[in-house]
């Protein structure tokens, strides 16, 4: 046997001197993978910069005019154009916009007169706090319910429970977060007075917004988790594990869960990323001092520097989270790395 | 297709409720503004912010207008906005997606990456950005949300179209000269239309939520126009005084959304049988698990030569279409060290037999036996689920590529069964190395750290055998272990199996559809046809002096090197076998329709296994005459 | 007369160090009205040859002759000629049909194709074609999922015949079927060949099956043809050790015959074919067992064409059938 292996490997050694990019790729998959993800991250952030820059410039009509309204004097319009930097050559505008943005300098808020940076430093952590809390609830409940339903309804068991579950989760995901928010505010805030309905007074204030953000997602997530788990349960290797007479617990823990983890990590990442930008409406309902409510009022007030900075920051967060998820996936399933 | 949907919609209660709700909402959208327009506009300063009453179901607003009337009137605009945004999104997304799918590979990759990036932004955030650019109002709300919806729809349609164009039948149609004008509508669009339509349906629901959300934030529909979102935010300012003004429009949004979701769910179930819970059961039954606790006891010292003794094994399924009986009462006796072949065409019930005796039959299968003894322990096949006894039976499945866990190292997979039985880690690893050596895997110690995808097909199958050997099995059940493999690899796997049989003394039940494999490997052979054994005997007798006409047909169809090109073309068993669900099953012998020597009796009586010239045969015309009564 | 001929066909998948030369200089000639068998292990490049010949894989060649028209590179006219004359049937019939069309509609599409108008032979209706492959005409109204594997494979032969080809390439068309069904398909193929004067390329990993239907046989190993010739000759007097291994791998219908194990090891990584003779790490009579055969490691015995009955082995001339492959005889 050893002899055979040696002979087979001989040509490999001869050929390995042919080094090239794809050879490096074959030998250091991790390095190449990380490099490619970082490169993608940089490109996307650059695109975001350009995108937010163009956002103001591609608007139909004169942005300054739109900010100030039709009654504004030409002088005021000119002044605003200057403050926006619209009077300088396009390339110079882009360059200074990017340069400043990289130094986290987004100028001053039109409506509040404070530097955008300060505004955001105050608001952004609040949104992350809400999104993280909601993601946690979403994942725990979503995975719990999804896995439980998969186990209960596997192989076509309990068809009635299966149908009821599908229907109710479908209905649940049809309830928009702001409706839930309003409902919660009335029921738990107003009548039962269990939780405050506005502002930020620690954990008790966090509860209602968190639930309002998380619950519509549970309907979706738990169904995806269930489908994923059922798929793994029906794989041939699970039958092999049964043939080995392993205990049910070991089959679930060692054979089913690791194979379902791939899908799980993806979903967790997607959930968090979408919640970071998706808390906008609920923040408004509960007067939560996060990015969402700041962004909304900025749009209403045509406070473009804040809109730009907000979109840029939320976008970058989403992209960074996605990159982290990719790396995590590669750790969970190193096989996929090799194939890629 | 349309009938299928209609049927599905009204078959389930949730689908029926959903469809009726939607019809009602659509009716409201049509007649709402006609019926309630005046009431909705009438301001009344004496009636400001009234609560719920007979006259004002949802109370009145800050200008004294009736909120119920306004909610009804708003139905039309809300629906139009939602459908409009979904249409814009679908047109944009689907067109972009399909165009991307037909681009050259390099360009396609770039475009897909761009779509992926935009995909990661929440719809509401994108919509806000576009509203910030275009300003508020009805049209810009539709456009903004439509654009924000486009990326996911583009991704979906390009994925579907790409997958479709890579299908084998698509490529073959091309080589057959089917022109593009046929390919596009009949292959590509026909196969992706269903999921795209379903998604469009879901998109309307999501668009309703997004439109309402924008209006709710005050950046969507602008007064004096109003949709449910505007009403909701107006009511929201009065939440503490007059909750009905907010909850009314909220209820409409929720009801419409649920209606859409229910209808979507029902149509998805109709389109996808997997969602309908029609999945094949593969797991063990709880009842069977309960039996596992009661360990079977040895009670028959006389039969210790018999490793497995099963009498009258039956496997039946209850399906909506009636009872399906893949295995119809068969006896199997396997002696120590014996290699028994089970041969028959596909669908004859061989795999179901193997799974049933291993206690691995699907949960909805009804497995019954008159007698079942494994290693002298009486019990049911499911009793084998007991670990100590059950592990003495090892399984090797047909598809080695999917039967090993892709995410677990081979070493862990091989050792986990014995480790659970209390064997130490080091000893288990040593044993695994030994077993891998037994099945001729080179460099076994380093192989233990590998994953299954690092092995070739033949190696995987040999690892499966080695894994079974870990628990010192008394019986190895190998279900078509080489059918998926090349002849050279088949030779390797068979020789390993033979080695193992000789060296460890384990008996083997070898299942195959190929008589030549059986002839090489087995000492006894059972021929299976339509769920029953039709011939049983020494391999030499069955192969060289076949009795049953089906056995002869099976043998004649084998192509070996001994058939020279000049000799008569090998025959195939003509016609079709009776299926397991009992359709086209004649009253008498199940081979009747294909039998060249059938006589009168064959149509009336089912032939049991009888003594033949050599071995046993289930045929009225081949059994020993003395046997016949 | 050859119906289809290709010289020095090469197909590569991927690039750089991961590149696989799936087909590395293959030359084939299909005799008009005859059958050429192509055998080899899975991964040896048989299917790639087939797919390249019908344009489903991108390959290069020196010369391609299709029904007396010669081409020196893959071009539109070459493609058109191939579409007109060459048809292709795959291993898995269940993926070969559009699931949304009835079998009849799938066949009718091919009949309606504009390319067919200039085709030779008589046009037939779907019903006639189904009859030709011994299927019930009612099959025309059925959907693919309603048919068995054997029925579907017959239907896909019928559809290929709708295009009125002169050459049929059959890629492992019986490998997914039971032996009983396989026998029927092979007989059908033989009958059709006589009736329609078809030329056939029959691809299989089983030498017995290939020999059963072929006049000529080419044996492929790691992207190359290592032995070719008259099928009886290749079988009875195989000169390449790999051919002999394939011969010995075929199970016999003889009870008590020794179980032969011609090759023990796995095929090498096709991305890095062994130096010298590509078969040397596995060759039962090569340097593994005869250390003095250093030629095998140092010199490539090269590629050969079908025309000459030859074998790509330095020791082919010394080889006879009696050099026994490693027999493992186990008392049964
Ligand atoms: N879960 C199931 N429900 C209903 N019928 C089944 C199920 N599984 C298998 N069958 C039926 O059992 C019969 C025998 O199948 P199988 O044992 O796989 O045959 P073989 O192994 O000989 O090919 C087939 O007709 C098949 O349709
Ligand atoms: S019993 Fe009759 S029909 Fe059945 S196999 Fe024998 S002769 Fe044929
Ligand atoms: S050249 Fe050498 S290694 Fe290659 S086939 Fe011939 S004897 Fe074997
Ligand atoms: Mg089977």
UniProtKB/TrEMBL annotation, chain A:
The answer on whether this UniProt entry bears the keyword Transmembrane helix reads yes
Domain called ABC transmembrane type-1: residue spans: 124-325
Q: Does the keyword Transferase apply?
A: no
Task: Give the residues annotated as coiled coil.
Answer: none
- Where does it reside? Cell membrane
The membrane topology term of the UniProt record is: Multi-pass membrane protein
Chief place of localization = membrane
UniProt keywords, alphabetically: Cell membrane, Membrane, Transmembrane, Transmembrane helix, Transport
Chain segments annotated as transmembrane:
30-56, 130-153, 174-194, 206-225, 260-286, 306-332
Pfam families per UniProt: BPD_transp_1, BPD_transp_1_N
Instruction: Please report which protein family the annotation says this sequence is part of.
Output: Belongs to the binding-protein-dependent transport system permease family.
The identity of this protein, by name, is: ABC transporter permease
Q: Which organism is it from?
A: Microtetraspora fusca
């Amino acid at each position: 046997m050893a002899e055979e292996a040696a002979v087979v490997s001989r040509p490999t050694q001869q050929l390995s001197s042919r080094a090239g990019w794809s050879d490096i790729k074959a030998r250091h998959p991790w390095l190449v993978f990380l490099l490619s993800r970082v490169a993608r991250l940089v490109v996307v952030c650059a695109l975001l910069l350009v995108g937010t820059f163009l956002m103001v410039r591609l608007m139909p009509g004169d942005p300054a005019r739109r900010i100030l309204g039709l009654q504004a004097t030409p002088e005021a319009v000119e002044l605003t154009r200057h403050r926006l930097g619209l009077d300088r050559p396009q390339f110079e505008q882009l360059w200074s916009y990017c340069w400043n943005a990289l130094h986290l300098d987004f100028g001053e808020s039109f409506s509040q007169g404070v530097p955008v940076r300060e505004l955001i430093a105050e608001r952004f952590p609040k949104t992350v706090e809400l999104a993280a809390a909601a993601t946690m609830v979403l994942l725990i409940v979503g995975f719990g319910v999804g896995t439980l339903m998969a186990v209960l309804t596997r192989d076509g068991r309990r068809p009635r429970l299966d149908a009821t579950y599908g229907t109710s989760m479908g209905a649940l995901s049809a309830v928009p977060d702001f409706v839930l928010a309003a409902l919660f505010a009335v029921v738990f805030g107003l009548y039962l007075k269990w939780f405050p309905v506005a502002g930020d007074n620690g954990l008790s204030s966090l509860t209602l917004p968190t639930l309002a953000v998380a619950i519509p997602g549970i309907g979706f997530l738990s169904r995806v988790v269930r489908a994923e788990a059922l798929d793994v349960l029906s794989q041939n290797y699970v039958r092999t594990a049964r043939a080995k007479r392993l205990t049910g617990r070991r089959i679930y823990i060692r054979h089913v869960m690791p194979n379902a983890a791939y899908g799980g990590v993806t979903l967790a990442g997607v959930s968090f990323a979408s919640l970071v930008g998706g808390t906008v409406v609920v923040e408004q309902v509960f007067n939560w001092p996060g990015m969402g409510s700041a962004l909304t009022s900025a749009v209403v007030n045509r406070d473009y520097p804040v809109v730009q900075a907000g979109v840029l920051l939320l976008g970058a967060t989403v992209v960074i989270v996605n990159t982290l998820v990719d790396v995590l996936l590669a750790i969970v399933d190193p096989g996929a790395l090799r194939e890629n | 297709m349309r009938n299928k949907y209609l049927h599905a919609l009204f078959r389930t209660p949730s689908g029926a409720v959903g469809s009726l709700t939607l019809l009602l909402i659509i009716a409201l959208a049509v007649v709402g503004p006609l019926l309630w327009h005046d009431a909705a506009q009438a301001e009344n300063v004496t009636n400001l912010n009234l609560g719920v009453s007979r006259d004002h179901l949802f109370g009145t607003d800050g200008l004294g207008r009736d909120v119920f009337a306004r909610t009804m009137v708003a139905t039309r605009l809300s629906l139009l906005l939602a459908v409009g945004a979904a249409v814009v999104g679908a047109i944009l997304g689907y067109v972009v997606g399909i165009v991307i799918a037909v681009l050259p590979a390099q360009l396609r990759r770039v475009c897909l990456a761009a779509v992926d990036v935009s995909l990661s932004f929440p719809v509401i955030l994108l919509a806000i950005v576009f509203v910030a650019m275009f300003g508020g109002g009805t049209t810009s709300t539709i456009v903004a949300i439509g654009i924000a919806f486009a990326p996911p729809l583009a991704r979906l349609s390009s994925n579907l179209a790409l997958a479709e164009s890579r299908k084998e039948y698509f490529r073959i149609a091309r080589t057959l000269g089917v022109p593009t004008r046929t390919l596009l509508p009949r292959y590509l669009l026909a196969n992706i239309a269903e999921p795209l339509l379903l998604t469009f349906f879901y998109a309307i629901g999501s668009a309703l939520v997004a439109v309402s959300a924008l209006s709710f934030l005050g950046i969507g529909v602008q007064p004096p126009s109003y949709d449910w979102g505007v009403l909701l935010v107006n009511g929201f300012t009065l939440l503490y005084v007059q909750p009905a003004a907010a909850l009314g429009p909220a209820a409409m949004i929720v009801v419409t959304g649920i209606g859409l979701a229910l209808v979507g769910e029902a149509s998805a179930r109709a389109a996808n049988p997997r969602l309908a819970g029609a999945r094949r059961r593969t797991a063990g039954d709880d009842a069977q698990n309960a039996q596992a606790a009661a360990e079977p006891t040895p009670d028959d010292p006389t039969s210790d030569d018999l490793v497995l003794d099963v009498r009258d094994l039956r496997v039946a399924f209850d399906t909506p279409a009636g009872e399906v009986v893949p295995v119809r009462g068969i006896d199997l006796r396997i002696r120590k060290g014996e290699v028994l072949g089970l041969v028959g065409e596909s669908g004859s019930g061989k795999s179901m037999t193997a799974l049933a005796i291993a206690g691995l039959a699907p949960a909805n299968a009804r497995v019954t036996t008159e007698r079942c003894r494994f290693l002298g322990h009486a019990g049911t096949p499911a009793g084998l689920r007991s670990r100590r006894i059950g592990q003495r039976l090892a399984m090797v499945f047909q598809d080695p590529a999917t039967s090993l866990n892709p995410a677990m190292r081979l070493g862990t997979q091989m050792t986990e069964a014995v480790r659970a039985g209390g064997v130490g880690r080091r000893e288990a690893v040593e044993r695994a190395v030994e077993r891998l050596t037994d099945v001729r895997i080179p460099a076994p110690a380093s192989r233990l750290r590998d994953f299954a995808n690092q092995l070739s097909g033949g190696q995987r199958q040999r690892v499966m055998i080695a894994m079974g050997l870990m628990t010192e099995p008394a019986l190895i059940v190998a279900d078509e272990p080489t059918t998926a493999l090349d002849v050279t690899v088949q030779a390797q796997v068979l020789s390993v199996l033979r080695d193992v049989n000789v060296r460890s003394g384990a008996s083997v039940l070898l299942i195959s559809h190929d008589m030549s494999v059986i002839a090489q490997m087995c000492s006894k052979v059972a021929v299976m046809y339509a769920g029953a054994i039709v011939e049983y005997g020494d391999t030499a007798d069955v192969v060289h002096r076949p009795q049953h006409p089906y056995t002869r047909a099976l043998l004649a169809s084998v192509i070996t090197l001994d058939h020279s090109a000049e000799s008569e073309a090998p025959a195939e068993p003509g016609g079709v076998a009776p299926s397991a669900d009992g359709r086209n099953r004649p009253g008498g012998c199940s081979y009747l329709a294909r039998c060249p020597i059938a006589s009168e009796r064959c149509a009336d009586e089912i032939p049991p296994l009888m003594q033949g010239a050599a071995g046993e045969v289930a045929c009225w015309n081949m059994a020993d005459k003395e046997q016949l009564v | 007369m050859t119906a289809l001929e290709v010289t020095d066909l090469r197909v590569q998948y991927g690039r750089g160090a991961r590149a696989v030369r799936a087909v590395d200089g293959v030359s084939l000639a299909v005799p008009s009205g005859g059958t050429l068998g192509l055998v080899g292990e899975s991964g040896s490049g048989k299917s790639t040859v087939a797919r390249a010949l019908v344009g489903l894989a991108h390959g290069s060649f020196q010369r391609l002759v299709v029904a007396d028209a010669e081409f020196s590179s893959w071009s539109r006219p070459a493609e058109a000629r191939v579409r007109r004359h060459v048809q292709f049937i795959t291993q898995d019939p269940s993926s070969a049909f559009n699931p949304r069309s009835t079998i009849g509609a799938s066949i009718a599409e091919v009949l309606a194709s504009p390319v067919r108008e200039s085709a030779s032979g008589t046009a037939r209706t779907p019903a006639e074609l189904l009859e030709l492959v011994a299927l019930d005409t009612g099959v025309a109204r059925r959907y693919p999922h309603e048919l068995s594997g054997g029925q579907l494979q017959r239907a896909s032969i019928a559809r290929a015949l709708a295009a009125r080809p002169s050459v049929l390439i059959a890629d492992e068309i019986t490998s997914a079927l039971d032996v009983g069904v396989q026998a029927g398909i092979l007989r059908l193929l033989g009958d059709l060949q006589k009736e329609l004067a078809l030329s056939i390329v029959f691809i299989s990993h089983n030498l017995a099956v290939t020999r059963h239907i072929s006049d000529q046989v080419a044996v492929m190993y790691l992207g190359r043809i290592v032995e070719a010739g008259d099928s009886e000759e290749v079988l009875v007097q195989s000169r390449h050790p790999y051919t002999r291994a394939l011969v010995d791998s075929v199970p016999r219908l003889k009870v008590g015959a020794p179980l032969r194990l011609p090759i023990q090891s796995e095929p090498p990584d096709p991305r890095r074919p062994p130096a010298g003779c590509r078969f040397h790490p596995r060759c039962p009579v090569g340097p593994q067992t005869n250390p003095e055969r250093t030629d095998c490691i140092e010199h490539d015995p090269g590629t050969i064409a079908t025309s000459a009955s030859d074998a790509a082995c330095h020791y082919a001339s010394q080889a006879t059938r009696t050099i026994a492959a490693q027999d493992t005889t186990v008392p049964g």
